[in-house]
User: Which sequence fits this backbone?
């Protein structure tokens, strides 16, 4: 394997991993463009490096498979970091799955199966984009309006933004009003019943809620 071929593999890993990462970035997920590129690029480099090290040593295919298995196993720790559990609800599974997918993608590119890598990327991207639209069409969404009163907390807004980010909610309105040591918040968003229920349950982890009204 020459240097030029390795460079082409790395560039292809950046392109294919970046396409999948861009979809996650535009969906406002915890792991976005750069994370997916780095993981795909690293997996490609590890596979290419194993080919360099094993070249001319009469190594069996099983040696390269062990390298691939080690990469995938290590990926499990990063994927687990994108999964959040709160009040019995789990978030981030799709993003963790895409990180695992781009790890496999990088290994395929590193092994030199370019056509398969391109087809695999198209299938992953189609699953993320097309099936999300199917879910949005099949799952009825309702506009929810929340009116909250909480004890004023400097960390509440930061934690609220994180919750909205991880649930993938798109806010239609967000108004705040401070009354002495009470913070009044009016917000609205469109979501399925399941997403709204997850949001409602997670609110109690953020601050001392004094009052919740839902229109």
Assistant:
């Amino acid at each position: 394997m020459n240097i030029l071929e390795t460079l082409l593999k790395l560039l292809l890993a950046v392109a294919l991993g970046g396409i999948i990462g861009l979809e996650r970035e535009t969906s406002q997920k915890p792991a976005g463009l750069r994370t997916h590129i780095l993981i795909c690029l690293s997996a490609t480099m590890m596979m290419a490096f194993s080919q360099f090290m094993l070249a001319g040593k009469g190594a069996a295919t099983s040696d390269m498979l062990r390298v691939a298995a080690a990469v995938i196993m290590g990926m499990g720790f990063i994927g687990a970091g994108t999964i959040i559990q709160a009040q019995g609800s789990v978030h981030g599974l799709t993003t963790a799955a895409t990180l695992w997918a781009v790890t496999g993608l990088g290994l395929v590119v590193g092994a030199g199966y370019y056509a398969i890598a391109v087809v695999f990327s198209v299938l992953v991207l189609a699953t993320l984009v097309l099936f999300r639209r199917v879910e949005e069409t099949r799952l009825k969404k309702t506009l929810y309006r929340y009116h909250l009163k909480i004890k004023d907390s400097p960390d509440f807004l930061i934690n609220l933004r994180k919750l909205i980010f991880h649930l993938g909610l798109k806010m239609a309105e967000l108004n705040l009003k401070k009354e002495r040591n009470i913070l009044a918040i009016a917000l609205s968003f469109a979501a399925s019943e399941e997403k709204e229920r997850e949001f409602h349950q997670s609110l109690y982890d953020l601050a001392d809620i004094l009052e919740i009204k839902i229109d």
